[in-house]
Amino acid sequence: MKPLPSTSSKTPVKFRMPTSENLVPIRLDIEVDGQRFKDAFTWNLSDPDSEVSVFAKRTQKDLKLPLAFATQIAQSIQTQLTEFRSYQGQEMLTGEKIVPIKLDLRVNHTLIKDQFLWDFNNFDSDPEEFAKTFCNDLGIEDPEVGPAVAFAIREQLYEIAIQSVATARESRNAKKGRRGEYSSISSRSTGAALDLMKLFSNRYSVVRKRKEWDVYEPMVDILSNEEVNALESMEERKPR
Amino acid sequence: MASTEPPAAVTPPSSKPNLLPLASTTIITPSAAASVAVAPTASSSSPATPSVTTPRPIPSDAEVVHIPSYSCWFSLGDISECEIRCLPEFFDSRSPSRNPKAYKYIRDSIVKQFRRNPSSKITFTEVRKTLVADVISIRKVYDFLDAWGLINYSPAALNKPLKWEDKDSKSSQHATDSPAGPSSDSTPPVRETSKRLCGSCKSVCSIACFASDKYDITLCARCFVRGNYRVGLSSSDFKRVEISDEMKTDWTEKETLQLLEAVMHYGDDWKKVAQHVGGRSDKDCITHFIKLPMGEQFASSAEFGSSINKLNQMKDDNNISSSSSPSKRLCLSPLADASNPIMAQAAFLSALAGTGVAEAAAQAAVTAVSEMGQGEPKADIRSLHGVQGLQDASITSNGSGILKSVEEAHSGVNPKPEEKEKVNVEEEIRRVAEVQMKQIQEKIMHFEEIDSQIEKEWKQMEQMRDILFYDQLNLLKHERAIRKSGQQAAEGVRTQGDFVS
C-alpha cells in the first residue's frame, strides 16, 4: 500500500464557504429593554441588501417584538454580511483538509451531540442536505432541529475558512521572507485538520478505533421541561 | 389439500379480500397498506372550493381547506407553470441551492404546516424556523403562496365590506374573525370608537392615516410623508383613510330624511344636498345615499311611483357616472385590490364599460363558454366569437357582482320606514339589466343559427366535392378500360390478320 502523497495542492483559492451554495451563517443576539432575542439562520449572499430590512421588519412583526428590534436586527445582519464580504477578496489555503465538525446543541427539547469528519476541500458539499438526512435518520420530530444543525455546521466551516485565510496570509508573508519554512507552515495551516497519514496509520483496517466509537456516534436526547429550564438558566448565567 | 380459504394467521388485516396469499409465504404487499394510509391525507388536503359558492357538505372526518378559485392549478404532487413563471429564480439553474427540488421541499413544507391548523394564520418566522434552507428563499416562496391564497386564506375574508367604507368596520371584523391573526392595529369591535395606531411611530392616528392592505400596515400621515416604511413598499401601496369621518356617529333618521328630500330636489348637485342636510360633507352624503337600504322588507306601493322613478334615475346616474368618486370606487373596489392582476384588470375594464354593458356581456360569455365546454366542433368564426364573449363575460360577472355587493351593503344597514320609496330602485335596475342580457342572449342564438347553417352548407359542399371526385375517378377508369379494350381489339385484329395472311 503506497503511502498517500504528502504533496497536497496548496494552491490558494478565493475565499468562500466550502459548500455548494455560498450561504452565510448569521447569528443574532440582541437585547433591548431587558428583552433578549436570540436567533440563528443562513443567509444567501446573492440576495440584495434590501432584503435585510424587509426580513428584520417581518421578524419583529411576526414575533411581536418592540419596534426597536427591527433596526437592531437589520444592523446586526448587515454587520455580519459586511464582515463576510470583507473576507471574500482574499485567498485561503486548502489542501487535504479533513476537519472534524462537532455538534453540541439544544433546540427546544432536543439535545444533540455528535462529531464527524467533513472534507473542507469539497466545494460541492451541502450542509442542508446533511441536516435533513440527519433529522430523518434519527427520527427527530422537532422541525426546528434541522436548520439548527445546518447552521452549526456552517458556522464551524466559516470559522475554519477564516482561519485558513489567516494562515494563507501568514504563509504569503513568510514566503516573501524565508524560503525554507514550507514544512512548518504547512503543518500549521492544517492545524485544524487531521493529518491524513495519522488517520490511516492503521494499515490493517479502516475501521475506527474502539475507544473513538462513542465520540463519533450521534446522540439525541429528549429533555423534560425541568431539564430544559435548568439548562436555560445555566446558559443565561454563563455569559453574565 | 390446498384450500381456497386463506389461513387466518397469514391474512393481513388491511389487504383486499381477493388477495390470496400463498400457503407458505407471508408477503404483505406494501402497496395495499400504503393506499389505505394515503386516503385520509388525500381527503384532508382537499383542494379548491370556489370562493363564492355555498359550502359543500363536509365529510365527517376530513378537514376542508379553502383556496381561491384562481389558485385551483395548485397541486402538492408537482410544479405548475404558474409557479415557474412567478418564481423563475428557482428554475433557471443560476444558483445551486435554488432548484426545483428545493422549491418543492419548501413549498410543500409550508403548505403542510399551514394545513395542520388552517384556522390560524401562519407567520413567516414560524415557517423559516423549521425549514432547512436560506431565509430569503423561504420568504420568496412564502410570499408567493400568501399572494395566491394557498396559505392564510380564510373564507371570512370574502365577505369583507367594500374598501372605501369605514375602515373600522374592517378592523372590527379582523378582531372578531381570525383569532390568531397578527393584526397590528387591533381595535375594539365597536364601530364608532376605533383608534388606529401607526405601525412605525406607535402614535394614535388622528386626522388621516395611510393603510397598505398588501402588507397590513398602518402609518400615520407623518410617517408616510417621511417615508418611514419598509423598503419594498412604495407610496402607491398605501391608501388614504380619513379618520375624522370614521369618528362621526351614524346618520340619524332626521338627517337621512333631509338627505332624501335634498336628493329629490337637487338631484345630482351634491353640494346643495350637503348644504341642505347640514353638518355633512357632500362626499358623506353620497356615501350614505348609496348605502341606504334597498331590502325586500319594503313592499313597493304605487303612490311612490314617480318619486321612485326619479330616484331610480338618480341612482342609475350615480352608479354609472364617473363624477361621483365613491360610486366609482364602488365599481372598482370589489376586485380592484385583489392580488390577482387579471381580476384587477377585469374590474378596471368593467368600471370603464359601465355596469349594464358589463353585465350583459358577461351573460353572453357565460353561455358561450358553457357551450364551448360541451366540446362541439366549431368553426373559426364561432371560436372567435366565443373569445370575444369570454372577455365581456368576465366584465359582466363583475358587474353582477357589483350589484350583489350593493345589495348586501344596503341590506346591511338597518331599514328605516321613511325610505319605502327606495324599494323599487334596485328592482328597476335589475330589470333593466335583465332585459339587456336577454337581448344579447337572443343575438347570440341568432348567430348560433347562422353558424350551424354555414356548417351544414360547408358539409354539403364537401359532399358534392367528394361526389365530383368520385365521378371523375370513374370516368378515368372507364376511359382507361375503353382504351385498353380498344388496343386489345386493334391487336386482335392485327394478329388475326397475320394469322390469316
Please give the structural blueprint.
The complex is a heterodimer of chains A (240) and B (501).
Chain A: E1 13-14, E2 23-32, E3 35-44, H1 50-62, H2 68-88, E4 91-92, E5 98-107, E6 110-119, H3 127-137, H4 145-177, H5 182-189, H6 196-199, E7 219-222, H7 225-237
Antiparallel strand pairs in A: 1-4, 2-3, 5-6, 6-7
Helix pairs in contact in A: 1-2, 3-4, 4-5
Chain B: H1 30-44, H2 81-86, H3 100-116, H4 124-130, H5 135-147, H6 167-176, E1 208-212, E2 217-220, H7 221-226, E3 239-242, H8 243-247, H9 253-266, H10 270-277, H11 282-291, H12 305-320, H13 325-336, H14 341-353, H15 355-373, H16 380-412, H17 423-500
Antiparallel strand pairs in B: 1-2, 1-3
Helix pairs in contact in B: 3-5, 9-10, 10-11, 12-17, 13-14, 13-16, 14-16, 15-16, 15-17, 16-17
Query: Could you tell me how far the N terminus lies from the C terminus of chain A, measured between alpha carbons in angstroms?
Result: 55 Å
Assembly state: heterodimer
CA-CA gap between termini of chain B = 96 Å
Q: Radius of gyration of chain B over alpha carbons? A: 35 Å
* Poorly predicted tracts of residues of chain B: 1-55, 159-194, 296-306, 320-332, 376-381
Description:
Helix content of chain A is 43%, strand content 20%. By secondary structure, chain A is an alpha+beta fold. In chain A, a hairpin with a 2-residue loop joins β2 (23-32) and β3 (35-44). Chain A is globular. Mean pLDDT of chain A is 78; it is low at 1-8 and 183-190. By secondary structure, chain B is mainly alpha-helical. Chain B is built from 17 helices and three strands. Chain B has helices at residues 30-44, 81-86, 100-116, 124-130, 135-147, 167-176, 221-226, 243-247, 253-266, 270-277, 282-291, 305-320, 325-336, 341-353, 355-373, 380-412, 423-500; strands at 208-212, 217-220, 239-242. Chain B has a three-stranded antiparallel beta sheet. In chain B, β1 (208-212) and β2 (217-220) form a beta hairpin. The N and C termini of chain B lie far apart (96 Å). Residues 1-55, 159-194, 296-306, 320-332 and 376-381 of chain B have low confidence and may be disordered. The interface between A and B is medium-sized, with 32 and 26 residues.
